[in-house]
Amino acid sequence: MPLDLPPQMHERVVCSIAAATKYEVPANIILAVAEKENGRPGQWVRNSSNGSYDVGPLQFNTRYLQDLARYGITAEHVAAAGCYSFDLAAWRLRMHIKKDRGDLWTRAANYHSRTPQFNQVYRADLMIRAAKWANWLTVRYPTHDVSNPASTVAAATPAKSERILPAAAPKAASLATPAYVPRQLIVSTNP
């Protein structure tokens, strides 16, 4: 477990990185979204503008959850503690990154809104948070620039208690932007 984080952030970090691995989304982007949304298990926040609610750690809007009901996904599922809401957020981010138009950051900010004025504000903050998380990950774990197969950036080897799941990024061509280098954690199978 990353020892330099407050205990209340451990689930966020572990679940974000595990979801990044599973859905092949950059871990720093999921960490940035989770930090930006800043929800808690069981939390319901009312949107005064339209009467909907944002639910759980990743603040899924109940209007979006209406579409997911056909898959049996309920607000209670995403409000619960644990990694399920992080998996769902990573799945959703993957869909935006792969299918939406615009640069990586616009596509990732579609998690919040496709409305340009709201997307731009979210996008700007997401970029700052993602850069911070990229630095945090790089300092603690070896990373690899997926746009350059020959590159490896060494990091201080974390203590065994700090090792967590690797994060795989999508293909570089689908994420390449001048301001962002997708990273993949390198996990050694040697103890």
Account of the protein in words:
This protein has 191 residues and is mainly alpha-helical. It contains eight helices and five strands; from the N terminus they run ααβββαααααβαβ. It has a three-stranded antiparallel sheet with strand order 1-2-3. Helix 1 packs across helix 2 and helix 2 (27-37) crosses helix 7.
Compact overview of the structure:
This protein has 191 residues and is mainly alpha-helical. The chain has helices at 10-23, 27-37, 62-68, 75-79, 84-99, 104-109, 116-140, 172-175, and strands spanning 44-46, 53-55, 60-61, 143-145, 183-185.
Question: Using DSSP, what is the number of strands?
Answer: 5
Q: Report strand %.
A: 5-15%
> How many H/I helices?
8
Instruction: Specify the overall morphology.
Output: globular
Task: Give me the side-by-side strand order of the main sheet.
Answer: 1-2-3
Chain-wise SSE layout:
Blueprint: H1 10-23, H2 27-37, E1 44-46, E2 53-55, E3 60-61, H3 62-68, H4 75-79, H5 84-99, H6 104-109, H7 116-140, E4 143-145, H8 172-175, E5 183-185
Antiparallel strand pairs: 1-2, 2-3, 4-5
What attributes does this structure have?
191 residues, three-stranded antiparallel β-sheet, single chain, 8 helices, two-stranded antiparallel sheet, globular, mainly alpha
